[in-house]
Amino acid sequence: MSGRLLTHLRHVDLAVPDYDKQLDFYSGVWGLTKVAEDSGISFLAAEGSPEQYVVRLRKAADKRLDLVSYGAASRADVDTLAAQLASSEVQLISEPGAVDTPGGGYGFRFFDVDGRTIEVSTDVEVRQHRKIEEKEAIPVKLSHVVLNSPDLNRTREWYERHLGFALSDTLSSPHMGEVMHFMRISNQHHSMAIAQGPHTALHHVSFEMRGIDEYMRGSGRVMRAGFQKIWGPGRHMAGDNTFTYFLDPHGNTVEYTTELEELDEDTWHPHVYDFSQPEVTDQWGTANPMNELVAKESFNDPDRGVFIAPPV
Questions:
Q1: Count of alpha carbons within 13 Å of 285, Cβ hemisphere only?
Q2: SS3 of 220, please?
Q3: What is the pTM of this model?
Q4: How confident is the model at residue 294 (pLDDT cuts 50, 70, 90)?
């Protein structure tokens, strides 16, 4: 797409009251690697990813989504995007400058239309990573993030206009209308999706596994460890990816996935899928049905960080 300045999703940062439990979960049963920690803040990498980290945890009194971080190709692109956002009266939290997190880099932060903090950075040092081996059931990389918005189409239009996202597919139903938009910044079907929700909040964070076998082994490990599985295993129609959803110790939904669809952007036309049809939510028919419990857990708690920049 011409004019697109974002390249990929880097990391998702969470503030959590029960920091030790969260760190044990993500660096233990979930399969991430703690690469740095300093006084109530930790950085967790995926072994197969060149990103310095894919999750940041911060100890805080209130649970919130601290920020979502995206990459850009160059300092010039970062500067261009910052200038474009400022001229469109998007509220910048910081001007482009040095990034003071593992791997360094150059970037800035701003609020999206719902008040989430978004970071864009470039020149971050590449982490030494490795190929994930057969039967090694740990995340290869961060796949995508899904965000709840009280005004689905306003949020979609903001991300299209200001950040160059393109619509891949939509979930809808005869009774509820549109409930989710899948958005992309590359040929990956979605690096973000926007869900219609009662309030601004994190819907879920998704992690890519090596393949079907590793995805199933990882899902089984989390289940055996006693963490609540809320939906899956199955395969969605939009994106054609597998899914198993769990709750982390503080009630955030996290997903193992694999085989997310790659598109030909020049020829792709968005579909509108009727998610009241069982095969749309799960082509395989192996997952528990989508129901009120699954939806309620995915709404999450109202985000306490709306239009409040995280302290770090």
A1: 1
A2: helix
A3: 0.97
A4: confident
pLDDT tens track for 216-240 = 999 999 999 999 999 999 999 999 9
**Residue 245 φ then ψ, to 5°:** -110, 135
Asked whether residue 148 falls in the same domain as residue 295, the answer is yes
37 in Cβ contact with 18 (< 8 Å)? no
120-179: pLDDT as tens digits: 999 999 999 999 999 999 999 999 999 999 999 999 999 999 999 999 999 998 988 999
Query: In whole angstroms, what is the distance from residue 179 CA to residue 197 CA?
Result: 8
Residues forming beta bridges with residue 43, ordered by sequence position: 36, 56
CA distance 272 to 16: 36
Q: Quote the DSSP letter at residue 132.
A: P
3-state secondary structure of 25: helix
DSSP string, 76-88: HHHHHHHHHHHHT
Amino acid symbol at 18? D
pLDDT tens digit sequence for 65-103: 999 999 999 999 999 999 999 999 999 999 999 999 999
127: in domain: no
- The DSSP bridge partners found for residue 166 are 184
State the amino acid at position 54 in one-letter form: V
In sequence order, what are the residues at sequence separation of 6 or more whose Cβ sits closer than 8 angstroms to the Cβ of residue 128? none
Are 183 and 277 contained in the same domain? yes
User: Domain range spanning residue 242?
Assistant: 141-299
152 and 96 housed in the same domain: no
Cβ atoms of residues 144 and 96 within 8 Å = no
Residue 293: pLDDT band (50, 70, 90) is confident
pLDDT at position 1: 40
How many other C-beta atoms can be found within 10 angstroms of the C-beta atom of residue 295? 14
Distance CA 309, CA 69 (A): 13
Neighbours of 242 (CB within 10 A): 27
**Do 288 and 185 touch, CB atoms closer than 8 A?**
no
Enter the tokens of residue 83: 């200038």
